[in-house]
Amino acid sequence: MRPTAIAAGVFIFLTTTSTMAIDLTPLWDFSQPDVSEQRFRAALKTASGDDALVLQTQIARSYGLRKDFAAARNTLKAIEPQMATAGAEARTRYTLELGRSYTSATHAADTQTTESRELARKAYRSALDLALQAKLDDLAIDAIHMLAFVDTAPADQLKWGLEALSVATRSAQAEAKRWEAPLRNNVGYALHQLGRYDEALAQFRQAVVLREQRGDAQALRVAHWMVAWTLRSLKRNEEALDIQLRLEREADAAGQPDFYVFEELEILHRDRSDTAKAAFYAGRKQAAAR
Fold first, then answer.
1. Largest Cα–Cα distance in the chain?
2. What is the pTM of this model?
3. Are the C-beta atoms of residues 267 and 289 closer than 8 Å to each other?
4. What is the pLDDT, as a whole number, of residue 205?
5. Contacts of 186 (CB under 8 A, 6+ apart)
6. Between the CA of residue 283 and those of 32, 255, 289, what are the distances in Å?
7. For the chain, how far is it from start to end, CA to CA, in angstroms?
């Protein structure tokens, strides 16, 4: 099954534009956290005040993405004394990263004790409260989003996802609006896990529309894949097959053969009793996994 992010939320209305500190977007490359760390450290040489604190929270995050959670906490511990007088964004980011050092997508399941989850929950709740007070919509959604890594049952993730979606759709802030497509994906995924396929399909179709507006070809292909995956669950296999075949062509043309597309095509052809084509896509899937 194609991996998917988890979103979470709470029913709140955040519509006031807020001022964020340093712009982190050009510094982040989430696929290369080590490179991002270097950029943060370079920026730190000329930064001061809250900007310097925010940069250090992101250095901590880069460690967490590399599963060095001790280094992440040590980085945060070094700036903890300054949090009492820091601005809202720095304090929110500090507590977010503290939570991520205990529970996040990069933590192995066998490391997630009751204690670690509760430490994460406390930090995320604190980050959420700070973000709400400062009307930092993007960070409020992020804090809520992370709570779904604490509460992982599909029903909980649906609850969080719907509540997070409420935040994103009601916010006037561009940073918060950008969450809507992944949040709809997450809501659809939770619905799919609960067997509510028609509702899941509706969310995935809305995610497609949003992805089309963003112009990210790879993200758009994933959005279409989720639609096709759900159509198969609804026994609408011919529709699903048409989409997956198109995705195969598009991914191949982009030089990005897709393991998950081949997996679905293998299943769909097997369901049609076309063993030759099922075997062909099993081979493509195996090659893509290397």
1. 67
2. 0.86
3. no
4. 98
5. 4, 5, 6, 7, 148, 157, 161, 164
6. 30, 17, 10
7. 17
What is the rounded distance in angstroms from the CA atom of residue 251 to the CA atom of residue 238?
20
Which is nearest to 258 in space by CA: 274, 237, 243? 243
Residue 151 DSSP label: S
204 falls in which pLDDT band (50, 70, 90)? very high
Between the alpha carbon of residue 103 and those of residues 141, 262, 275, the distances in Å are 17, 32, 43
Mean of the per-residue pLDDT values of the chain: 92
What distances in angstroms separate CA 115 from CA 12, 46, 157, one per listed residue?
28, 38, 20
Rounded to an integer, the average pLDDT of 250-267 is: 97
CA atoms within 13 A on the CB side of 48: 1
* Contact predicate 148/157, CB 8 Å: yes
Q: How many helices (H) and strands (E) does the chain have?
A: 14, 0
